[in-house]
Design a protein that fits this description.
mainly beta, 15-stranded mixed beta sheet
Length: about 260
Amino acid sequence: MRRWLLIWAMLLPFVAAAQQKDKIPSLSRHPFQGGEKESYGLFFKWGAVVSEVGTAWLHLDSLRYEGVPAYKTTLRVQSTPFFDLFFKMREEFFSWFTADDLRPLKYSRDTFEGGYMASNLYHYDWEKGVIHADINFESRGRQVLDIPLKEGVSDLPALIYIFRAIDYSCLEEGAVYPVAFAIDDKVFDVKLTYRGQEMVKVRKLGKRSARHFSCSVVQGAMFEGNQELQFWLADDSSHTLLGLMAPLRVGAVWAWVKDKNKK
């Protein structure tokens, strides 16, 4: 028995390496279009305690950006009036990206979280390989800088649609894909893992067939280094984001899509 355990321990790194992929497989035709609107209920869960803390709204528009066919997505997050008494939260994200290969063009972020304020404004310069960034932190003041830009880098709102454009037919359960995104003054490299097909119970909507993914998170004030964000995409032609779970140092935040007929 020990011999087999030793052999398996020696082979494990090679098995893991075989699951590493160069890029996320993408559909040639995207499963979304301009005019889409989604809303999500946000919940804080700590043990047996579950509290509704806010709502997120996601909106996608089709347009032309400097003559190029593009999308613009708007993501707004707002805490409930009751939760405002404890931790008022207002977040607003905008992202512009090309309609063909979903390459980011421009991004902005305005954040107010419990008194903390920050803003980002990016212009992606792919010819020069930099992000021209105008960043303002409440604690550090304003910074204008160029952030090195490499192929595959995106921003958080655009990532939602990059994930929705995944070609399910090319996925292998357990496969790991590279993901890079920019926020504030840095680019972070994380890993996306495909967990497989499963039935997920969507709050108030019942069970739905879904594709389950997890993504490593950046260690910091809110996250532990060994935690993973979980999310579920609809296993149908829309690839709609059904829900996600973001682990915090204390508890976790869950988001579940709402019925399209309800606000």
